[in-house]
Amino acid sequence: MVRDYSALNPEIDEDLIENSFSRLISIVKKPIGMIELAPELDIETVTEIFIRINSKGVVLSQADFAMSKIASDTENGGNELRKAIDYFCHLAIAPDFYKHIVDNDKDFAQTDFFQKMSWLKTENEDLYDPSYNDLIRVAFTSQFNRGRLSDLVSLLSGRNFETRTFETEIAQQSFQKLKNGVNNFINETNFKRFLMIVKSAGFISPKLIRSQNALNFAYIVYLKLKELGVNSVAIESYVRKWLVYSILTGRYSGSPESTFDFDIKQISQKPFGDYLNEKEEGELSDAFWNASLPQSLDTSVASSPYFHVFLASQVKANDRGFLSRDVLVSDLISLRGDIHHLFPKDYLSKNGLDRSKYNQIANYVYMQSEVNIKVGNKPPKDYFELIKTQMQDGNQLVSGLSSEQELLDNLKMNCVPTEIMEMSIDDYQDFLTLRRKLMAQKIKEYYHSL
After folding, report:
1. Spacing of C-alpha 167 from chain mean position
2. Given CA atoms 283, 289, 291, 296 in this order, what sign does their dihedral have?
3. Residue of 399, 331, 323, 408 lying closest to 367 (CA atoms)
4. Distance separating alpha carbons of residues 388 and 395, to the nearest angstrom
């Protein structure tokens, strides 16, 4: 082969060619390093071993281990289940992937799993696009009444937690329960009904929900209560309340697995309404609404969960944008409208306030850009004087509002204190304090209406 190649390519060094072929041929003699782990090792130890020897520092999640366990199974349809999880998550983001599955994975296209997820081929909703981590977590927790995914890996291996042995029957039962959980998750009626409930709480856009775990557990609540035969009207109210409660309290922001585990066990052992009342009494007392929440609204972070809940309360109430007669806050959110400043940013900046001061969320409001342009960099007392003059003259140069009552109603729905109409730079801190209290009160009323 070397001679033939050299004859056809005389300009190339024959020694170089021969050396290259020799190296290629010797590949079969190269040893491949393998580290075999004892089967009795727990998942935490396996994770630690992987992290220590992994040069790139890629941290495997418990869901990664669960997926590898599912995919490697040959006796309980694990690979088909793995594909169902992967394909659903892919289709939720890219519906056109449906044709790729039909054309390139004909065996899976004939399965019951594929038929149950085929509704995604025309679905463009992006409120809840789950990853395989989310899907596994919801399916597992809702079916097994456990929150730690390391338990799933053990159960799929057939572990008996009492005798500390591994039994084939437990593995078979665990795979079947997980399949049931996945089927429940991908079921069109369940998925769409859950999204309908989330939207009915005012969360109409993914940018209003930054905690995927809060969304995951809300779906767990929906599936679990449905399994327990709870009245459908009650389920809607419970899911809405639990979602907002968990966002307001940051319930799943710390150690979500242990909290998932605790919550699902409580839900399985007592009426959900009783458990929810316990949490409300403990964490949503008057002190929370009157002191803690207004303090939490003292931030310049626009992605604050408290601000998002406030916006959801406006969506649910069909509130109109600031100084708008017809355009709803929900329209401004869904059509990628902008958040603007009640005390104009340029005005505050020129008066010596830095970004953390003028970007307070209590200074934020959804406002039409054309209205914001007309407000310009004037202090509130000046641009409100302009609005009052326009209403008297019957023109609508700044705002579509035509009467003082319409103006007062608009201020109320946007939680803007009426005192703003006489305010300038000296009143800014007082304005922020007043508005935070109004926002907290609106959130409280919204929560109790869910």
Report:
1. 37
2. positive
3. 323
4. 10
Q: Within a 10 A sphere around the Cβ of 253, how many other Cβ atoms?
A: 15
| DSSP conformation class of 290 | I
Do the bridges between strand 165-166 and strand 159-160 make them parallel or antiparallel, or are there none, so unpaired? antiparallel
Cα first-last separation, the chain: 78
Q: Which residue has the tokens 């109603």?
A: 409
Q: Which helix (H) or strand (E) is 363 found in, with range?
A: none
Between CA 114 and CA 125 the distance in angstroms is 19
Residues whose CB is less than 8 angstroms from the CB of residue 376 and which lie 6 or more positions away in sequence, other chains included: 344, 383
Side-chain half-sphere CA neighbours of 89 within 13 A? 14
Interhelix angle 43-53/62-72, rounded to 10 degrees, is: 100
Instruction: Give the per-residue pLDDT at 118.
Output: 97
Q: Give phi and psi for 165, each to the nearest 5.
A: -115, 170
For 365, phi and psi rounded to 5 degrees? Answer: -160, 150
Whether the Cβ atoms of residue 390 and residue 403 lie closer than 8 Å to each other: no
pTM assigned to the model: 0.86
Residue 257 contacts residue 149 (beta carbons within 8 Å) = yes
Give the C-alpha separation, 185 to 223, whole Å: 8
pLDDT given at position 318: 97
CA dist., res. 289 & res. 287, Å (int): 6
318-127-372 Cα angle (round to 5): 45
Mean pLDDT by 10 residues, the chain (450 residues): 84 87 87 81 75 68 87 92 97 96 96 97 94 97 95 91 89 97 98 98 95 96 97 97 97 92 96 97 96 96 95 97 93 87 94 92 92 88 90 74 91 97 96 98 98
177 touches 136 (CB < 8 A) = no
In whole angstroms, give the CA distance from residue 448 to residue 152: 37
Which tokens go with 389? 């003059």
Ramachandran assignment for 415, one of left (phi > 0), alpha (psi -120 to 50 degrees), beta (any other): left
State the amino acid at position 111 in one-letter form: T
Total residue length of the chain: 450
- 340 φ, ψ (degrees, to nearest 5): -125, 175
pLDDT of the residue at 255: 84
